[in-house]
Amino acid sequence: MSEEFILVLQQFSNPVLDVLFRFFSFLGSELFYLFFLSFVYLCLNKKMAIQLGIVIFFSMYINFTLKEFFNLPRPQHPGLRILENPEGKSFPSGHAQSVATVTFFLAWSYPKNIYFLLAIIISSFVAISRIYLGVHYPRDVIVGAVLGFIIALFFWYLFHRFERLKLKFMPARAIFLSLLVGGLLYHFSFDPLSARVAGSLGGIFCGTILEKTLINFVLPLNFKTRLAHYGLGIVMVIVLYLGMKVVFPVSLWAYFLRYFILNFWIVFITPLIFYKVLKNKKN
Known about the structure:
Layout: H1 2-10, H2 15-26, H3 30-44, H4 46-70, H5 94-109, H6 113-132, H7 138-165, H8 171-187, H9 192-214, H10 223-247, H11 252-282
Helix pairs in contact: 2-6, 3-4, 3-10, 4-5, 4-7, 4-9, 5-6, 5-7, 6-7, 8-9, 9-11, 10-11
């Protein structure tokens, strides 16, 4: 029955829809989040970027864990057009879950009807795109989107509560807890996907603590300066991202370390270069 739904949807296939749904599917990809989160961090809102990073990666860790637990295969039918070669299992959909997590977390953070409407529209198109591309069943994207909504609401409430508590910031303890959380997530990682996410979270946590302690940068008033920082920063990040693929072996610990370094670089090293090293040279 599920394959029949995909086949019916793919009856409308044409080059324009192929491009359109590939675009919506890209919104849930690793590469998109690399560009998107870096842009928010260096150009728009440092605090929101960190929160989004934490929410996305925790959501993905839950997703990959559920995929390993249920171990359900992706659609397989001789009549299907398979337009992507995704990693991992089918249930629940990581793209549908991650996009729902991001869009609804932003909608909860900036509560206006138009943002909730946009979250519904974007999440729906991404979910449909995964079915259209032949890589997910309807059940996968429905459950993924619902999980994304729940996770977004949970973390929005959690961050809101933590801000009210006004806890005293203690860098040494925070670093220890960050390494502990990252280590525990890595310990329970079953595959390269969850190891990447564990490393990403560890890098974000440690980078955020050091940035707050040693730099605590404020975005420049001039938006062109922000864009220049982003442009140079993303070039360095891409070089690092591609370089580590060549240098590191294929193993769980290597995936963890690569993504720890990558996210630590974005959150701490990039502002260190722009707001400490280069600023001191100008002075």
